[in-house]
Amino acid sequence: MDLKELLIYIFFGMVQGFTEPIPVSSSGHLVIVQYFMGIEVKDLNFEVLVNFASFLAVLLVYKHDLYELIKNTFAYLSTRKEEYKSDFMFSVYLVLATIPVAVLGILFEEMIGEHLKGIQQVGFALLATAVALYLIRNLKGYKGDKSLTVKDAVIVGFAQAVALIPGISRSGATIVACMALGMKQDTALRFSFFLYIPVSLGTFLLSIGDIAGSSNFSEMALPYAGAFIASLIFSYFSLKWFMGIMKRGNLGYFALYCLVAGLFIVLYF
What we know:
- It is built from eleven helices and no strands.
- The protein has one domain.
- The longest helix has 32 residues, at 217-248.
- The chain has helices at residues 3-19, 26-37, 44-61, 63-79, 85-115, 119-136, 150-162, 170-180, 185-213, 217-248, 251-268.
- It is mainly α.
- The protein starts with a helix and ends with a helix.
């Protein structure tokens, strides 16, 4: 492992971290960056680790909200008091919304990896993301945490599953679905990023044995660590930045970015 390769992994961690929380597709941007640099990192351990770093960033940003949600969920289970019911149901909806991506991810992971990671496919996926973001850019919503339904959870869950396709933003797909269903911006944000937690944590736990047992683990420990730290830092500040953008209702800028990036890729590559 030389310095150049270490810096490449750190840079990829920065790209993943910055683009994970915002609706522009982190997986798509990693494909684009690797294409332009002429480097292909076929390293699933890398993807798992940088996504887990983004998961930790989400925990840091939402630590107080998550603590209240978990505390009130268990309080409802033990007391059945009505005051805790909305948080309990929010947790139930998160579980329901996680099922589609878990099932479809297992069924179609190999096909997606083989056929949908080309630069052209990413370009078309970015164009689809641009259209979806443009359509909901001015929606304000009326549903708070207490107004969600099973139908909302299922639809958002399938929207997250669509984001298995590189170029379709996970945060973008879930936020678009949330806001199209009438959720307020803060509820859409919380539901979207809380939904990221079980997916990322589950993937990491299932992969930890493969990571620790990989033949090149000792050789890759330093670049893994560099990419992990870079992803954690950039994910944290990118999410805080995006939360401010959501409050100001500026999603149209992301729609424009995805449109320009998608057209450039489709027309020239």
